[in-house]
UniProtKB/TrEMBL annotation:
Gene3D superfamilies: Tetratricopeptide repeat domain. The keyword Cell inner membrane does not apply. Residues 273-504 form the Tetratricopeptide repeat protein 21A/21B second ARM domain. It comes from Meloidogyne enterolobii (Root-knot nematode worm). This is Uncharacterized protein. Signal peptide: none annotated.
Length: 509
């Protein structure tokens, strides 16, 4: 399995793990078959098909995989090809159950036979990247070459991504690195330290990787993220410059450039960098809805008063809606429309989100994320209603909606937006400032309950949501004359945390 230790394959695996499927395909084209050799060609093609599926082109992937199945020279990889075909079939809007049963039958038949080493390794890698950990684990145990660096690294990544980290996880990565400086193992070890927020060892591991191989672009990306976690902004900027020498349009690096320019320095030039990033994202990651929504959510959370940031967020969300109109995309577009003052469109989008299958009455049996999307859809609708002029009767109806939501979904109280809406309702109903402040204070406590934002990361920025926090701070300060020092203290707490993460932004409240 020497081909599995290819630095090129390690980088492809990285981009897939990070959900940059278009980037992974592009890198495969750039590296070419020469980087993995004939032995790794089937592994390469299987990953290509997987990326194509994740970009919504399952029919194209099936054609490629069926050609591989008919190619006798790729017989060793039949199990991984069948698993890839199964993934492709499961991604179809209308699943062919009969074809799926036939694939399962063939997979089961191969399991009862001696599985070729290379094919088993590729199949395990594929299942790991698809987060089918329970299927990947027994297949990994079938591998006989359990002492080489590729196996050790794969074992470490399986434990890491499945959440079953133990002392052996780090030991597996260390042994793989000691054997032949396995790039995959370096990245896995750094990721383990990242999860533990051990930034010093994370940086040390990545620097060791770059000393061994200075052209591994993902190492620069993760090293830049480590500097950002520590808020060492100038160091992060220097690393981004080095990475740009390897690839000038690397998407994560471009985005970190934007973060540095816009959020940290407060430079208006950051908006131009963002426009270039979005152009590159829409080109390279075409049809990658999950990335469009992730970046769109982040931009919405930090847009504040900058219309150009909102515009770029809407470009990504519109692209996501063009792929599939799910509740997450509809709610994000609704929030952006509301921020621009288009209450009518915001209300229509929120209503469509409720009707898209995430409404309260259809949530039984859904997972927690689906359930929260349903709650958010109703809360967003109510927020749109409160943005319009309402008479006493309408305000009473809104209050009844919130009470009903609380009775049927007790966990809605764990969402800061719920308490913020109670404050807005009290304000619109001319309730005492003390009552308004009480709701806002609870909203702030709930917002900060699960994360104190001690490190900087894209995920923390999304959950921090500076845009909504600044709105809350504005409303709190409006009650300061009546409430006094407590209101000022809470507002100061909010703006201090926001400024810590967005030092380049100025707030005139």
């Amino acid at each position: 399995m020497s081909e599995a230790n290819s630095p090129a394959l390690a980088q492809i695996h990285y981009w897939i793990r990070e959900d940059y499927f278009g980037t992974a395909l592009r890198k495969m084209d750039e590296f070419g078959d020469r980087e993995v050799g004939r032995e790794g060609e089937c592994h390469w093609k299987t990953l290509r098909a997987f990326c194509i599926v994740r970009l919504g082109r399952s029919s194209e992937a099936m054609r490629l995989l069926n050609i591989m199945l008919r190619d006798e020279s790729m017989a060793e990889y039949k199990l991984s090809t069948l698993h890839a075909l199964r993934i492709a079939h499961c991604s179809e809007k209308k699943i062919d159950r009969e074809a799926l049963r036939e694939l399962d039958r063939q997979i089961q038949t191969l399991w009862s036979q001696q599985i070729p080493e290379r094919g088993a390794f590729t199949a395990t890698t594929l299942l790991l990247l698809d987060r089918q950990f329970e299927r990947a684990r027994p297949l990994l145990d079938k591998l006989s070459s359990q002492s080489n660096s590729s196996f050790l690294s794969l074992r470490g990544w399986l434990e890491l991504l499945s959440g079953k980290v133990s002392q052996s996880t780090l030991e597996n990565f260390d042994r793989a690195i000691a054997l032949d400086k396995n790039v995959e193992a370096f990245l896995g070890k750094a990721h383990l330290f990242k999860i533990r927020q051990n930034i010093i060892d994370m940086e040390s591991t990545l620097n060791s990787l770059l000393n061994a191989n200075s052209s591994v672009l993902p190492a620069y990306v993760e090293l830049a993220k480590a500097s950002a976690m520590n808020r060492h902004w100038e160091t992060m900027a220097e690393i981004c410059q080095k990475a740009a020498l390897i690839q000038s349009d690397c998407l994560p690096i471009l985005f970190l450039d934007f973060v540095y320019s816009y959020l940290i320095l407060g430079d208006i030039q950051g908006e131009q960098i963002l426009a270039e990033f979005v152009d590159a994202m829409l080109l390279t990651e075409a049809s990658n809805q999950s990335q469009f929504l992730r970046i769109g959510s982040l931009l919405a959370s930090i847009a504040l008063d900058r219309k150009n940031i909102t515009t770029q967020a809407k470009r990504l969300v519109d692209a996501a809606l063009g792929i599939r109109q799910n509740s997450q995309a509809l709610l994000l577009k609704s929030s952006l429309s509301l921020a621009e003052g288009d209450i009518r469109q915001a209300s229509q989008l929120a209503l469509r989100a409720v009707e898209s299958g995430s409404n309260i009455e259809n949530e039984k049996g859904l997972n927690n994320e689906d359930n929260q999307n349903g709650e958010r859809a109703v809360l967003t609708m109510i927020r749109c209603q409160l943005a319009e002029q309402q008479n006493d009767k309408q305000l009473k109806e809104i209050n009844q909606q919130l009470e009903f939501l609380q009775q049927t979904h007790s966990d809605v109280k764990e969402q800061s937006l719920f308490h913020y809406l109670l404050a807005l309702l009290a304000k619109r109903g001319n309730k005492p400032d003390e009552q308004v402040f009480s709701h806002l204070n609870i909203a702030v406590d709930v917002h900060f309950a699960y994360n104190q934002y001690t490190i900087f990361s894209e995920e923390n920025l999304i959950s921090l949501n500076p845009s909504i926090l600044v709105e809350i701070a504005e409303l709190i300060l409006k009650s300061a004359d009546s409430v006094g020092i407590p209101a000022i203290r809470v507002a100061d707490r909010i703006l201090s945390i926001v400024h810590q993460n967005c030092p380049g932004k100025q707030f005139f409240i």
